[in-house]
Write the structure tokens for this entry.
Amino acid sequence: MGKEIITMGSINQDIFVNTNVYPKHGETVWVQSVNNQPGGKGANQAIALSKIGNQVKFIGAVGQDSQGKNMVENLKNYDVNTKYISVKDDLNTGTFIVILDENGENTMLGTLGANNHLSEDDIQRAFENTDAEYFLLQLETNKEAIQKALEIANQKNIKIVLDPAPADGYHEEFLEFAHIVTPNQQEAELISGVKVKDKESAEVAAKVIKSKGANIVIVKLGEQGSLLYMNNESIFVPSYKVKAVNTVGAGDVFAAAMTVFLNDSEDIYSAVKFASAASAIKVSKAETQEAIPTYSEIVDFMNKNEK
């Protein structure tokens, strides 16, 4: 286990709706199931960092409600350091409705709630007295908090892994701080203006994204694999083929697994391959956080699926 990793992001109560049919406007549809699960991109990443094998310091916020208490207890159960999760008075914990279709693809509706009210003090305290070499974050919190966290991490020479999701939270000035940025196809298109559909277009997009400030660009192409672009060269990393059941959190697991690997090794190609295996395991199961694999599970999966 390497030095601790700092992460920052959202903590949500997710309500999953499993359906084969999307309702039309004004229509009522019977669905297969409705269930509650802890979620939030930040919480998913923090738990993945911990389960895969690292000490993790998590910066986040919940409301002063039962959902917030439950979400914090859930993080503690996964050995995540929750000291820097603040409780915001008169605000609700973030809540999202997740609609899953028969292919495991998801559509979401939600409110950020307390996630949108992280303060500079919340962030500053977490970065004191740390030996972290990596800071992992995504964009499901407020812009001011993200900007401040990026600036502090940069001042401390902590390498920043930026998962630019959700796309609604993206601002171009974030890229100048990123050591590694990991957009999916839609995010890569938003950032670069290039329609991303295959390896060739992913490389074009990656070059544009790198020109905006990031050192290393990894464009995730779903079941096709990932395009790694660095030092003016591109390498394609194939995906592991599995039956997708629930894609929620796949990008979170990818980013976390890669960061854990890099915390002990500078082999970026192997880190992306490791992350691809981790996300493949995740999407093959119905749960979100419970489905996040451990380090040994990822290694076993890779050994069984080597080509």
Remarks:
- The longest helix spans residues 268-283.
- The mean pLDDT is 95.
- The first strand starts at residue 5 and ends at 8.
